[in-house]
Amino acid sequence: xxxxxxSGGGLVQAGxxxxxxxxxxxxxxxxxxxxxxxxxxxxxxxxxARISSVGSTKYVDSMKGRFTISRDNAKNMVYLQxxxxxxxxxxxxxxxxxxxxxxxxxxxxxLGTQVxxxx
Length: 119
What we know:
Strand content: over 45%
Shape: elongated
């Protein structure tokens, strides 16, 4: 069994900051890429940022300069520092990880954490 558990969401005013965390646990041999996605009401889930096992990062253009993704491989954790938040950042934020277990590799998701940005 593998679990991804997000934390750190909440209600914040526009211009504020939040730091999301995601912990992977269970029978894990290694973790390849990890990432954050978000889904706003009535919209499809979209990529926010991804980070490789060696720290290479990729951001969606609208998040560049405001969001920073990082990871702690020793703790199997990934973080998302979100600054200068806007009301349009309101969404459920999901953690994603490509996890190797024994001879298999799978794509895992957390249940999400709500981020609400008030104007």
